[in-house]
Write a structure and sequence with these properties.
Length: about 625
């Protein structure tokens, strides 16, 4: 199109109508630009370093999540941030990326070696996860940024050696960080610290780090940027605000990302007796009513081994995750679970978290029952604390991938812990299911052999959970098993439970710990030199300390209802299995190799007894 200059030397169209059409098009484009939703923003739009954007693209993160869109720009501007977002919303990347960007920017001006960022986490598992995230996001600037984690069981000499080179980022629990700041060597120098991050802030105090955090706060320079990430806003978070935000109030981000249609956790609950928990869990996994990867939460370490030995009676493979196992074994179990090596993890959840409302309710109950407790002749026994690793936690922080279902075999003792448990599934826009077993008051201690003290308050805790979920717009639906059909399997449950004695549990616990210590410590150097061999190390082998009953590993057809396995339940709670399907036949692949002609080649004829004698 020919153009001419007007009196202001601006090119104009020769045709007025065309000029008007072009103006309309520009207006439409401008309107589209201004009305582009925030959800369409990319990581490049957030102002990150190009090398970080490239690393994010390599991880196939298409666009930032809500917490990342809100927190990253604020952190890049140097503002203090206190962010509350649900589990699995991408909080780790929301603080790792701006911290890396800030370090790269500072090092472009001054390349002097110094520790510029301290990341405090409550558990060793979370520290390992954060360390790996930093490695991934700094893949294209690895020479410019070096991170060190202090949570491994290393000697003081090794820790001094790691810190002597002044790493840019230090990831640690508060206790280990303060030990290196205040120790004889003062290996960790915080003089040039620029960034302080407290991940899972609401857990740091509840895990017993209050004194360490208070001491660290006086060793940290004034005016540094502080970022707190938490899944809940509790009184512990308020206490940390007073400790670390003395000069000014942080920018508070209270984010609640709504689930899209068809996403989120389907929450189900079934009321049953204490022994019926074992009956239902057997039916669920032996008949594959729930397919896909699953995490089963139990109350303590002994319950882990009781359930694992119980599963062994039926040939159901599972692995254990608890605070008693070495940290290297725990980390490897999580990695292998995420790589789809294991389908079932039995995890003990000993760290209970109380929300503000729950604490108030408990205090009120204590005041109401104060007079009654004085008149009671028999005092209540306090539950003994577990002797495991104090830096262990499984219901929070750890990124379990592609979890199809969470089963609360033992209901947690707080509604907040329930929220954190079910947050292990339905992550990153996926769907998931949470099934909880609740023991009614009238069935408590009816089966002493399988009873635990926490079951006494199941109905009270369920009421709190229902109330908390209702505030979020979530519904917990009852799920009923067909009792007549399930009772057919009861005698098998009783046979298996009789074999799982206290002596068998104690022996299994000792054997598992001995095996894992051997794998974790003596083979550590070998696996460092031969990382591929680590893939062959399994954690779901049979302990075989209980009496074995071979007949229990098979389900006879006469026990199954005529209508099929789905008749055992009142509805369909299954998920798509992870097993391979034959696309052409539309069925599961069976044994045997596919021949060049397209058929399935038979196996060894000596095993099939169908070989034909060759004719002359």
């Amino acid at each position: 199109m020919k153009r001419k200059l007007n009196e202001n030397d601006v090119p104009t169209s020769a045709e007025p109508e065309a000029d008007q059409q072009m103006a309309n098009a520009e207006t439409t484009t401008a309107a589209t630009t201004t009305t582009t939703p925030e959800e369409e923003a990319t990581f490049a739009d957030l102002g990150l370093d190009a090398r970080l954007v490239q690393a994010v693209a390599q991880q196939k993160f298409l666009k930032p999540t809500l917490v990342q869109r809100k927190a990253i720009p604020l952190a890049l501007d140097g503002k203090d941030v206190l962010c509350k977002a649900k589990t699995g919303s991408g909080k780790t990347a929301a603080y790792v990326l701006p911290v890396l960007a800030g370090i790269l920017k500072k090092k472009s001006v001054d390349s002097t070696a110094a520790t510029m960022a301290l990341i405090l986490v409550p558990t060793r598992e979370l520290a390992d996860q954060v360390f790996k995230s930093i490695e991934l996001f700094s893949a294209f600037c690895a020479k410019d940024v070096r991170a060190v984690k202090l949570t491994d069981k290393l000697t003081d000499a090794v820790q001094r050696s790691l810190l002597s080179t002044c790493p840019d980022i230090v990831i640690s629990t508060p206790a280990r960080a303060w030990h290196n700041v205040n120790g004889n060597s003062s290996a960790l120098s915080l003089d040039k610290l620029s960034y302080l991050v407290l991940d899972e802030a609401d857990l740091l105090l509840s895990y017993g780090y209050s004194e360490d955090l208070e001491s660290l706060s006086w060793s940290i320079p004034k005016g540094i940027q502080t970022i707190m990430m938490s899944a809940t806003l509790t009184t512990e978070v308020d206490s940390l605000k007073k400790i670390f935000y003395r000069d000014q109030q942080p920018t508070l981000l209270d984010l609640e990302e709504p689930d899209a249609e068809g996403e989120g956790v389907t929450q189900l609950v079934t009321k049953c007796g204490e022994d019926e928990k074992f009956l239902l869990i057997y039916v669920i996994f032996k008949l594959q009513l729930v397919k896909g990867k699953c995490i089963i939460f139990v109350a303590d370490i002994d319950r882990c081994y009781r359930l694992k030995l119980y599963f062994e009676q039926f040939g159901i493979r599972s692995c254990i995750l608890n605070s008693e196992l070495p940290v290297n074994s725990r980390i490897h179990v999580v990695e292998e679970f995420n790589r789809n090596v294991y389908d079932i993890i039995i995890a003990s959840d000993e760290k209970e978290v109380l929300g503000n409302e729950e604490k108030a309710e408990e205090e009120q109950e204590e005041e109401e029952n104060d007079g009654e407790s004085k008149q009671e002749s028999r005092p209540k026994k306090k539950r003994k604390a577990a002797k495991g690793d104090v830096e262990y936690g499984v219901s929070r922080g750890i990124d379990f991938k592609n979890v199809a279902a969470v089963i609360n075999f033992d209901l947690p003792t707080s509604a907040s812990s329930y929220t954190h448990r079910i947050g292990r599934t339905a992550r990153a826009g996926r769907t998931g299911m949470a099934l909880s077993f609740v023991v009614p008051k009238d069935l408590y201690r009816k089966h002493i052999h399988t009873s635990i003290a926490s079951s006494e308050n199941d109905e009270k805790i369920l009421a709190r959970i229902t109330k908390q979920q209702a505030k979020k717009g979530k519904e917990i639906k009852p799920y009923n098993f067909n009792k007549d059909q399930v009772d057919a399997f009861r005698y098998r449950m009783n046979d298996a439970l009789r074999a799982v004695t206290k002596v068998a549990i104690r022996e299994a616990r000792t054997r598992e710990l001995r095996q894992e210590l051997l794998k974790s410590e003596k083979l550590k150097r070998y696996f460092e030199e031969n990382p591929s061999e680590m893939n062959h190390l399994r954690h779901d082998g049979e302990l075989r300390t209980a009496r074995q009953q071979a007949h229990l590993k098979h389900v006879p057809d006469y026990l199954l209802p005529k209508e099929g396995r789905q008749a055992l339940t009142a509805g369909d709670i299954g998920f798509v299995p992870l097993k391979k399907f034959d696309r052409r036949a539309g069925t599961k692949r069976k044994g045997g190799k596919r021949s060049a002609k397209g058929g399935v080649r038979k196996g060894d004829p000596l095993k099939t007894f169908k070989a034909r004698r060759k004719t002359k």
